[in-house]
Write a structure and sequence with these properties.
239 residues, alpha/beta, five-stranded mixed β-sheet, 5 helices, globular
């Protein structure tokens, strides 16, 4: 009887340990693309890839996600095929069938961008958001989409915004540096708005995928979204 009880206890402890391990697993994310629906002058060449790299780096710095390579996947597959060809020493060859799958795929579309706006009273409206004030201000909005790879469903969408000017930024963070073709914009309002948007996307994904619905951080984002929608609604004039 004691052996059965001990076996059951060991089994229960094992189940609890496995369950805790699975619960503690970081969300597996792949960042697949950034596209542009604006006439932003800085968007050219490899800008989309630069934003993709920036978001990957920002997510990795949180140490709360498992980042799955998708941008350079062909290079990874080529290396695995080379290992399977017999041309590489077996002890150093990567194994086929060992790639980590992503639970979520993330994409972003730059849906609004405005720079160097003038006049605090006149201003302009971008996607329903008032952008006024002094010269040297930049505004950027990114439509974020999260896809569940298991079902193909879009499980989350959110518009993330950032505003900056030549002297300050509304995000009190160490924002690092811009990469690639965007490097020349690093110290400009444009560069600050771009980096701030990437940071905000990372923070939103951390809230959405780790904290979930009903959390305090999600309530804050819902308030921002409600405010954005109301401004969009107020900007529409019906005759």
């Amino acid at each position: 009887m004691k052996k059965i009880t001990l076996s059951m206890m060991l089994l229960m402890l094992t189940i609890v340990a496995v369950g805790s391990s699975l619960a503690a697993e970081n969300p597996r994310i792949g960042v697949i693309r950034f596209t542009n629906n604006t006439h932003a002058g800085w968007w050219h060449g490899t800008a989309g890839e630069n934003l993709q790299d920036m978001l990957i780096a920002e997510l990795a710095s949180t140490k709360k996600f498992t980042l799955v390579e998708r941008k350079e996947l062909n290079a990874v597959l080529s290396e695995q095929k080379l290992g399977a060809s017999g041309m590489v020493r077996p002890e150093t060859a990567p194994s086929i069938g060992k790639l980590t799958g992503a639970k979520y795929l993330v994409s972003g579309t730059v849906s609004a961008f405005e720079e160097n706006t003038k006049g605090s009273d006149s201003g302009i409206s971008v996607m329903g958001i008032s952008v006024g004030g002094s010269k040297g201000k930049a505004y950027m909005a990114v439509d974020l989409k999260v896809i569940d790879t298991g079902t193909g469903e879009i499980v989350d969408v959110r518009t993330v915004e950032a505003t900056s000017d030549s002297g300050s930024m509304r995000f009190g963070l160490n924002l690092g540096f811009l990469s690639g073709s965007l490097g020349e914009k690093e110290k400009t309002p444009t560069g600050k708005a771009i980096r701030a948007c990437i940071v905000e996307i990372s923070q939103y994904l951390e809230c959405s995928l780790l904290e979930g619905k009903g959390s305090s951080c999600m309530q804050e984002y819902d308030k921002k979204e409600s405010k954005r929608r109301q401004k969009t609604k107020d900007s529409i004039t019906l005759e």
